[in-house]
């Protein structure tokens, strides 16, 4: 085996690759320089043909080396690269002069071509030492680099490190690192990492955020530290290279703030809450104090003027947040209005529609502070009282809504003023916040419109009823969905009866309110026909189906629930039917509370399914509670738990129905309910026997006079002789029609309450109609007379026929 000669290193320049090859062309020696140039280790190439390392024609290259003593060789490196080396051949001869082996030395590049830009190659004998090249690379590196001894004292620093430290290398060499910096906390962290490298012998990556002694701004540093070892492996020191990543760090920080803003700003459709979110998010990232002022028109939900706002405009402080007790502008309290002068940064931002960057010492800024009285609020413990500020207008969809002011005090511990990067971030935040504020403003306006429409469609003043005493409440939703379509009604019916109605339209907003108004009108119309509850819901279901077919393309699916109950104070019976609506709750006079079992029935609009009515007798003083699902589903409970809570609240003692309504809403609902709530409480009344008179009549024209006499005698007993003439005429006409066109059984009933009601029932289901009799007609004038002499009249179906009724007002005494 042929090894490299001992003097081969002296014959070759420092850093040359040296390879020993025997006469067969097999590698027998491999220097460390060869490893550095090619990446191949000695173990990987020893005892292998040297030709395997060459790229191209190995025989031709070998002949050139033998002939000329030097040639350019193309070599394949370990990582697959192809590199050209300037090689020279030195034969090792045997005793008779024959070469028994060869030593090949090689360096990067081609002879005569410079290896390093700016450093000419004057040939192998004059080549600059590569160790000096490394020294130059260290000194001229663009990033700060230093070498410390195991005791954390400076050994070497390059030019970039000296510029960062602000002192030449001669003043640093031999000094401990802690003695060269003012930031004690940064010094401790730095020394801990240097000590860790020295103790473990492992490189570390160290990130820090500090202010360089020679600068006025803080910097983010990414520092690599690694051990420096001697030939014997002993630790000589710790080297480091630091990369200034302030821009990257600032960009990541701004991106984090924007990501945070995406989830924190606009969490509620509320103008003031959104402004408060902006102020709280921007402190302390963009300043120690942030204020948000909005136009009054924005707070009222009105449409502000498009474009920049003129000077001397009044703004109202809706939010501000501060890390300390002082900042310019804190002289304006929350909710207070102020007019900024034209030269102030907020007014300039509003007038131009662009952001304004300023700082203390500016004449206009100081004048603004003196005018607002903010100087008097300055913290006496502050360092210098200097600050920088930004005024950024809140603009959404081309409309200026207000202005946000960001203030950052300047001190020895926080010397960085607000700059263009901060301004860009502030503009991003205010732009996002402005859109959220505008959305909240639009929502408030739409909600106010829907609520006004809703309240205008609900009963305004319901007159007292004979059959029931009642109280009601309507509470709109406070959620983003807006006002819904809940409604209730108390409708007077013939015969002193009353209809109690409660319903809920699916969805929210103006469309739900409009649909609610249409359904409420339809219920009134159907109730006037005096249909039974189950039949009324059937007709209402058909109507909802037609409405859904007409507007489904514009507003989506249409559906509603409804509960319709009719109570008769004479028979003390209630008839109830429901269309997908929660059942009513009944409170009896003895304090017992139960849920009325009612066939739920399908929702309105489903179609094709029947509705069933439930009848129950109610004692005097019973309370019937009708409600929408928002009442029992308002808390995070299921419907059964909510209904149980309603029963408990209804059973609690109260001072009347109004007090009971308030107590129920307070016990069951949160402060801001997620859905609309309608509640109707009705306490039953009854008519005693002395207020009702009933007679069964035969189907014989001769009983007409008897019926008139019955009525006259009853009116005399009630003291209503003044109404006898009209009443006898009405009884005569109605009984005559029943005998002529109806048939047995025929019944006459008089009811005296706030009015006098005359009712005649017969077995026919055919309803009479008003008509104008011609001059030669013998009949047809009876109902016309009834309509002219009474306040109102009508007809209603019954189980066995129909009832015609007429009502006349009684004297006020």
Please characterize this protein's 3D structure:
- It is built from 22 helices and 31 strands.
- Strands 13-12-11-16-15-14 form a 6-stranded antiparallel sheet, sandwiched between helices. A 5-stranded antiparallel sheet has the order 2-1-5-4-3.
- A hairpin with a 4-residue loop joins strand 20 and strand 21.
- Helix 10 packs antiparallel against helix 14, helix 15 packs antiparallel against helix 16 and helix 20 packs antiparallel against helix 21.
SSE layout and pairing:
Elements: H1 8-11, E1 17-22, E2 27-30, H2 32-38, H3 42-45, H4 58-68, E3 70-76, E4 82-93, E5 99-108, H5 130-140, E6 145-148, E7 154-157, H6 159-165, H7 169-172, H8 184-200, E8 204-211, E9 218-229, E10 235-244, H9 246-264, H10 271-282, E11 289-295, H11 296-299, E12 314-322, E13 337-339, H12 345-352, E14 356-359, H13 363-372, E15 387-396, E16 399-409, H14 420-457, E17 468-475, E18 484-492, E19 498-508, H15 510-528, H16 533-555, E20 560-568, E21 573-579, E22 585-587, E23 593-595, E24 613-617, E25 623-627, H17 629-632, H18 639-651, H19 657-668, E26 677-684, E27 692-697, H20 703-718, H21 724-742, E28 746-752, E29 755-762, H22 782-789, E30 792-797, E31 802-809
Antiparallel strand pairs: 1-2, 1-5, 3-4, 4-5, 6-7, 6-10, 8-9, 9-10, 11-12, 11-16, 12-13, 14-15, 15-16, 17-26, 18-19, 19-20, 20-21, 21-24, 22-23, 22-25, 25-26, 27-28, 28-29, 29-31, 30-31
